[in-house]
Design brief:
The complex is a heterodimer of chains A (109) and B (142). Chain A is mainly alpha-helical and 109 residues long. Chain A is built from three helices and two strands; from the N terminus they run αβαβα. Chain A has a two-stranded antiparallel sheet. The radius of gyration of chain A is 18 Å and the shape is elongated. The two termini of chain A are 21 Å apart. With 142 residues, chain B is α+β, with helices and mostly antiparallel strands. Chain B is 46% helix and 19% strand. In chain B, the strands form two sheets. Chain B has a two-stranded antiparallel sheet. Chain B has a two-stranded antiparallel ribbon with strand order 3-4. In chain B, helix 1 packs antiparallel against helix 3 (106-139). The mean pLDDT of chain B is 90. Classes of the chains: A mainly alpha (109), B alpha+beta (142). The A-B interface holds A 12-13, 15-17, 19-24, 26-32, 34, 37, 39, 53-54, 56, 73, 76-77, 80-81, 83-84, 87-88, 91, 94-95, 98 and B 1, 3, 5-6, 9-10, 12-13, 16-17, 20, 48-51, 62-63, 65-70, 115-116, 118-119, 122-123, 125-127, 129-130, 132-133, 136-137, 139-140.
Chain lengths: 109, 142
Amino acid sequence: MDGISPSLERYMDLVSMRQKMVSSNIANADTPGYKTKDLDFQASFRSMLDGGGPRPAEVQGLATKNDGNNVDLDREARLLAENALRFSVASNLVKGQIQQIREAIKEGA
Amino acid sequence: MSLFSSLSVSASGMSAQRTRAALLVENIANSETTRTPEGGPYRRKDAVFSTTPVKSEFASELDAQMQTGVRVSSISVDQREPEKQYAPGHPDADANGYVNISRVNPAEDMVDLTSANRSYQANVAAMSAVKDMIQRSIDLLK
């Protein structure tokens, strides 16, 4: 949409992508051999602003259980909350921009 | 890029954990069963999980790579020899007075049940967070 910052749009895309990964990680918390999925947020954001795709990343420093699974539920819970907040900030900003455009239209009428 | 597929991922997790909990409850209920249709005492069952791709007509290659659901791929049955307990009066006792009893350890099943319960809750939390994000996107139209 014209007038709505494209970077905000990319940002919301990226946050929802990450939320999908978090959902997968939580669903597979007890699946043998499953490895935590995540993306390099900064690198992905920069790449998406340039028209590229997200950058998946291997998560370092997670303890692998005996069954080869390395999901840390506490980490996922933190990311879940963090993503929800990030998304809420971004959607409020977009809402503000839409409001401004709406005001401009009304004033012009 | 749709968030809706994420709901199915969480739902797959909930359903898998529910199946697991059902098996664990069955184990506890049958921990002292000495007679089964297959013959012999009850054998402990457990769910084996595996990843499964999320099916959606709108899912791109990237989507499939980023998210995977979970399913119960098989149910493992305890193959260990049953334990023997001396109970000569028991109708299932052998000639020496020993009864084959199940190897179910209720403590083990209780611990697993708690874990299944927690994992289920985690999936519910994930689903409600995603639902909230979708709601926020819808609110942009107001």
